[in-house]
Design a protein that fits this description.
- The complex is a heterodimer of chains A (124) and B (133).
- Chain A is built from 6 helices and no strands.
- In chain A, 81% of the residues lie in helices and 0% in strands.
- The longest helix of chain A has 28 residues, at 84-111.
- Chain A has a single domain, classed as YheA-like fold.
- In chain A, helix 2 runs antiparallel to helix 5 and helix 3 packs antiparallel against helix 4 (67-82).
- Chain B has helices at 3-8, 14-29, 32-46, 48-63, 65-69, 75-89, 92-119, 123-126.
- In chain B, helix 4 runs antiparallel to helix 6.
- Chain B is mainly alpha-helical.
- The chains are: A mainly alpha (124), B mainly alpha (133).
- Chains A and B meet through helix 1, helix 2, helix 5 and helix 6 of A and helix 1, helix 2, helix 7 and helix 8 of B.
C-alpha cells in the first residue's frame, strides 16, 4: 500500500502507525480484538447479533418488521451485553475511536483540511 | 488486557502519538499534491467570478432544496439549475480546484487505507465521516 508514496511520507506514515498502535487505547483495542476472535462464545454471539440485526433492517426496509425477529434481536443483545469479552471489546473500540478522532483533529488543524474527509472513499 | 498489563509494556503517551501525527501531517503538507491543492484553493478564494458563480448556484440549491429532495423540480427549474452549475464548474479555476482536490484525495485515501489496515479500524468512518463526506 505504501509503495506508491515518497520515502519520506512512507516513513512518517509508518512512524505514525507505530506510535498509534503503541498508545494505550490501541493496545487495549488490539488485545480486545484478539480475545474476541479467540473466544468462541463471544464470536458466535456477535455473528448471531449481526445476522439478527441484518434481518430486522431488511424487514424495516420492506415495511414489515416481525415481532418474533425483534424479540430474538433483543434476546441476543441482552446476552451480548452480559458477555465480558464483548463488553471489553466494545469499550476498547470506543476508546480507540475517541482517541483516533482526537488525533485526526491534530492532523486536520495542521493541514487546514479535515484529513478524514479527504481519506474517505466516497460511495454515494 | 487490563490497564496494568498495558502500562507494563510502556504505552506511547498521547503527546508522543500527537507528535508523530503532526510529523505525518507536516510531511503530507510538503507533498506536491497538497501544495498544488493549497495554491489552487487560494486562487479559487480570490477569483471573484468563480465565487459569484458558486454563490449563485448554492443560493438556488438552497431555495429549491425541498423540491430537490422530493425530486419535484420542474423541467424549467432543472434547466436553470444546470445552467448555474455549468457556469460554476466551467470556471477555469474551479476545474483546476476539483482536479487538485481529486489528486490530494487520492493520496489521502492511500494513506487512510494504510492506516485502516494497520489499526483495524476504518479511519474515515471512525472519525465520523459518512459515505457522503
Amino acid at each position: 500500500m505504501l509503495t506508491t508514496l515518497s520515502p519520506q511520507l512512507r516513513e512518517a506514515t509508518q512512524s505514525f502507525i507505530d506510535n498509534l498502535l503503541a498508545s494505550e487505547a490501541f493496545m487495549h483495542y488490539q488485545e480486545a480484538r484478539k480475545l474476541m476472535s479467540e473466544d468462541e462464545e463471544a464470536h458466535t454471539l456477535m455473528e448471531r447479533l449481526n445476522n439478527a440485526q441484518a434481518t430486522v433492517r431488511q424487514q424495516q426496509s420492506t415495511g414489515g418488521v416481525g415481532q418474533a425477529e425483534v424479540d430474538s434481536l433483543r434476546l441476543i443483545q441482552q446476552r451480548a451485553l452480559r458477555n465480558p469479552v464483548i463488553l471489553d471489546y466494545a469499550q476498547a473500540r470506543q476508546e480507540a475511536v475517541e482517541f483516533l478522532r482526537e488525533i485526526n483533529g491534530e492532523i486536520s488543524q495542521l493541514l487546514g483540511i479535515d484529513f478524514a474527509s479527504f481519506a474517505n472513499h466516497a460511495t454515494c | 488486557m487490563d490497564n496494568k498489563a498495558i502500562n507494563d509494556i510502556e504505552a506511547a503517551s498521547p503527546s508522543v502519538v500527537k507528535q508523530a501525527a503532526r510529523n505525518f501531517a507536516s510531511t503530507l503538507a510538503e507533498t506536491p499534491e497538497f501544495k498544488s491543492f493549497e495554491q489552487v484553493a487560494e486562487r479559487f478564494r480570490q477569483d471573484q467570478a468563480a465565487q459569484q458563480a458558486m454563490e449563485a448556484y448554492k443560493e438556488k440549491q438552497m431555495t429549491w432544496r425541498a423540491l430537490m429532495i422530493l425530486n419535484a423540480l420542474s423541467p424549467e427549474q432543472r434547466t436553470e439549475l444546470e445552467i448555474l452549475k455549468s457556469a460554476f464548474v466551467n470556471q477555469p479555476v474551479v476545474e483546476e480546484y476539483f482536479k487538485a482536490r481529486t489528486e490530494l484525495a487520492a493520496l489521502c485515501q492511500t494513506l487512510g487505507d494504510a492506516l485502516s489496515e494497520s489499526i483495524g479500524l476504518n479511519y474515515a468512518a471512525a472519525c465520523g465521516v459518512s459515505c457522503c463526506g
